[in-house]
Write a structure and sequence with these properties.
four-stranded antiparallel sheet, six-stranded mixed sheet, globular, alpha+beta, 10 strands
Length: 171
């Protein structure tokens, strides 16, 4: 046996053992952007959520299998996504909760992008906006929801978790 053969064998064995004792870690994160469109006088919101995580929470919460991003996707999938988003995501203007419209979704690789909008916000009379984001925190303890707010030249970003799920921007 050659020395190289033995070295390669030991290296392969060491690599195999190190992989066997390494725990794979998955990141649980969503990214939401809240922007004000002066032209439309509307808050336009996009929320990026991993497809498999959203599908898991819909299955767990509503006992449905939407088969998101597949040819077998259920016709009612959007209804359940909207229902979930309305229970886990909210906006307040000057401490008044304001409803949003679920405009739809699209897929981008392994992410679903949800489009939400709050029309007619009359921003000139508002003093603050608060975002509460509990998306996926009911299923994943490690879930982090990153929120970026950009309104009237002001920007603020938050990392929201289960124990701290609100962020506020003074206008």
């Amino acid at each position: 046996m050659s020395v190289n053969y033995i070295k390669n064998g030991i290296l392969a064995l060491a690599l195999l053992l190190s992989l066997a004792f390494t725990e794979a870690h998955k990141f649980y994160v969503s990214v939401t952007n809240v922007n004000y469109s002066q032209k439309d006088d509307a808050l336009q919101i996009t929320s990026r959520i991993f497809i498999d995580d959203l599908e898991n929470v819909l299955e767990e919460r509503y006992d449905v299998n939407p088969e998101l991003a597949t040819k077998k996707e259920a016709e009612w999938a959007d209804e359940y996504i909207e229902k979930y988003m309305k229970t886990k995501f909210s906006l307040q203007l000057d401490e008044e909760t304001i409803p949003f419209e679920f405009l739809g979704k699209r897929y981008d690789n392994d992410v679903v992008i949800c489009y939400l909008e709050v029309p007619r916000v009359n921003l000139s009379t508002r003093r603050s906006i608060t975002v509460q984001n509990e998306v996926l925190t009911d299923l994943f303890e490690e879930q982090q929801n990153i929120v970026h707010i950009k309104i009237a030249g002001k920007k603020k970003s938050f990392v929201l978790i289960k124990e701290n799920n609100k962020g506020m921007l003074n206008l």
